[in-house]
Automatic annotation (TrEMBL), chains A, B:
This is Alanine racemase. One of its GO terms (molecular function) is D-serine ammonia-lyase activity. Keywords: Lyase. One of its GO terms (biological process) is D-serine catabolic process. Belongs to the DSD1 family. Residues 269-376 form the D-serine dehydratase-like domain. The keyword Ion transport does not apply. The keyword Hydrolase does not apply. It comes from the Bacteria. It holds the Pfam family Ala_racemase_N. CDD domains: PLPDE_III_DSD_D-TA_like_1 (cd06812).
Amino acid sequence: MDSATFDPTTPLATATTLEALETPCLVLDADRMDRNITRLRSRLDSLGVSLRPHLKTAKSIDVARRLMSAPEGPATVSTLKEAEQFAADGVRDMIYAVGIAPAKLARVTELRAMGVDLVVILDTVEQAKAVAEASTDAGIRIPAMIEIDCDGHRSGVVPANYAQLLEIGQTLTEGAELRGVMTHAGDSYKGGGAEAQHRYAEAERSAVVEAAQLLRSAGLPCPVVSVGSTPTAHHAKDLTGVTEVRAGVFVFFDLVMAGIGVCQVDDIGLSVLATVIGHQREKGWIITDSGWMSLSRDRGTSKQAVDQGYGLVCDIQGNTYRDIIVADANQEHGIIAARPGSDARLPDLRVGDRVRILPNHACATAAQHEAYHVVRGQSHAVEACWPRFGGW
Amino acid sequence: MDSATFDPTTPLATATTLEALETPCLVLDADRMDRNITRLRSRLDSLGVSLRPHLKTAKSIDVARRLMSAPEGPATVSTLKEAEQFAADGVRDMIYAVGIAPAKLARVTELRAMGVDLVVILDTVEQAKAVAEASTDAGIRIPAMIEIDCDGHRSGVVPANYAQLLEIGQTLTEGAELRGVMTHAGDSYKGGGAEAQHRYAEAERSAVVEAAQLLRSAGLPCPVVSVGSTPTAHHAKDLTGVTEVRAGVFVFFDLVMAGIGVCQVDDIGLSVLATVIGHQREKGWIITDSGWMSLSRDRGTSKQAVDQGYGLVCDIQGNTYRDIIVADANQEHGIIAARPGSDARLPDLRVGDRVRILPNHACATAAQHEAYHVVRGQSHAVEACWPRFGGW
């Protein structure tokens, strides 16, 4: 065998049925995806704000085009690789929503020189100075937004820290461009019910609106006021003063989102198709070829009221089996069993039969795969194969 | 920007220093890797058995060639994608060590037709019949090994189940090829000290030797008797009756292996290079651009005596900071902090400074990356960039 007779990089093929696909693989229910997008878009329309979808969950131009209001954007990305890939596919309006490292500004400058309005975020004076310096070097004004801390979960300036906020704002206005303020209520993923989510959403709104007012009262510009997380986007009642909402995982949803009540299990559009490869009947186990390499190591439901193991098991049509989960996983093996304490009986599956597994966390599970196999309709016919990418 | 002026698939470039690499990225200390390989090879030489390295950790032909005793193998793989990729690079002797799904036999047959001695494993009569049927259809004899259960952790036939073992053996001998028996002491990853590991190693040995004797006494062939896990491979005292040992993660080692005493922290050859992007000084946090997307969601040390969070933090030269870990991680953010309860002080790192993070689980962390940046010597100069692959 030489490279002329055997090419391991054969392009991804499409198949017409789930039975014909190689397993494990990623299945995307496009009907559910469309419904999830329509639902959030209608909600934000009624609140009078625009959606700047986060593309870090999908990392696919085919999904991105369905998420964005126009082929040019707006959009949010989590890596410069996403910015470069989506730019190559025509997206022109993006926020790179991870605090900028000075060494990454060369790639930002390169994208801006190609006509992409790529905006960076930051929360320190050092970063603002680095953005100003890179702007001077390139003879442009790189736009940056100040990240605001609304709940203490990770990064950002607290609005009460006036001095820091103004020093960053002034540094950017003088040497670069102050595009606005942004925040993310990471704590909203902890759940707590609708009332808690209303509070998280209001905490997001009030933090950025307060920061924007502070900047403006000092004579600094602040055109964009951006908030966003999937839970708060689905619970906000009033977004006065906010200009846009960022959200990402809602496009597919997952068991973590269902566990905190942001969606129902039958809204989850992503699953991993797996094949049964064995049984340990005396232990009540079914063994599949879908281990953590295809499901991810994410155990996001482990601290929720209902622990879904490594995922909830469905038949090939996507109908859930009551209380049947991937109880444990090795690299390329999944162990399907009844949820501890449940009286559910294992489905009667034979070697070669197929199941679909709903993921704990769509961002993490999708990242383990190179493509989405897209199904639609009652038949769950596979109508397309959409590539996705990874890396930085 | 069009595709003529911007190509997102630019080949991976090499750099000459760790300071010049884009972050996050994967760093491989080739000196440590070489030492780990030499150590296990010497050990198995003294026990009189050959090494069939598992390539699922590395998924890189450059690493595989250093692991294998010859360019043709032998080797072990966990996916047919690995078998196909390594076959394209000249490997000719492989065990696909995950129970075979009947629908995958077409790809096995195709590889065998190209001159690759690819062996499958199975533990049910149904699978043996499917292998016999595929053999008849292709006019060949597909070799299969019977997976033996030595510790109840996952798959396999228990040797005491004589009837099942013999029925599988007879089905394969009549319609395909019975290549031998194999087992894997998954429970050995739980640790328990040297004495426990000696017992796990002996449990592996005695289970397959007993199964081999049973098959042979029934007049069936059993040329290969295969055991393997990284912990047992480093603790076995006597491998009488065993013909080969499979092990994989030892090539890089990781914090889980260090936590159960199979290696020292300074044997770990894999790390993720990260850049500081912020601080929350009042919380004692340093924020980096290395979140779970680059580290993986693996929390394998969470149940060990020392919980390493999402990884142990080192300076750019790979020297560990005492008790400084990645305490939490989001998709593209890592939060560095002192280990809970420790009096360690955070290192004085500024925005733009770099650190290296030792992973909980090398297989999972490596899988998040497309290449290894290879360093060697006191200078940690980057001497190569070795591509790696994923998928099935």
